[in-house]
Amino acid sequence: MIRATRVIRRDALASGEIVDRVVLDHGERHRRRIAMRGVGGTAFLLDLAQATVLDDGDALVLDDGRLVWVEAAPEKLLEVRAPSDHALKRLIWHIGNRHIPAEIGAEAVWIAQDHVLAEMVRGLGGSAEPVERPFRPEGGAYQGGHGHPHDHGHGHSHDHAHPPHRHD
């Protein structure tokens, strides 16, 4: 079976033949070794040296140099909002105190759907509305920001075009 042994990060992707894509939720994007099949049918073994968080827009490098695009799957989440910046910061603190994955935006925070946390947020004056969208939580302080090493594999600047992908 063909193997994928390297990841090219979306900010370092310059060129290459993208032959397929895998659509993975947040949990499925934290991998080291697993058999995968792309949407177009390309079967391969993901065989990385260490467990890695794959980000939306990354590419997996197959043994023959072809690339498989990584796309974040839509997930059922709660969109947490607050009436003020200070109130949102308080909610972020309470969410973080529960040690759950969270994606922090300028005016909202997204967490996995959980009725207990939704009630906590509402009890603290915020809103928690169900949404379906890709989940890109923070990597954590002990994961170097993204929880993965950067294998850029080239020595040029990063002002190049990227293959299109959805953000809906």
Automatic annotation (TrEMBL):
Matching Pfam families: UreE_C (PF05194), UreE_N (PF02814)
Function of the molecule: Involved in urease metallocenter assembly. Binds nickel. Probably functions as a nickel donor during metallocenter assembly.
Residue ranges annotated for the UreE urease accessory N-terminal domain, each copy included: 3-68
Keywords, alphabetical: Chaperone, Cytoplasm, Nickel
Family from the record: Belongs to the UreE family.
InterPro entries, sorted: UreE (IPR012406), UreE_C_dom (IPR007864), UreE_N (IPR004029), UreE_N_sf (IPR036118)
Biased composition (Basic and acidic residues): 148-162
Compartment(s) where it occurs, according to its Swiss-Prot or TrEMBL record: Cytoplasm
Protein name: Urease accessory protein UreE
Annotated stretches, region: Disordered: 128-168
Residue ranges that the Swiss-Prot or TrEMBL entry lists as coiled coil: none
Domain of life: Bacteria
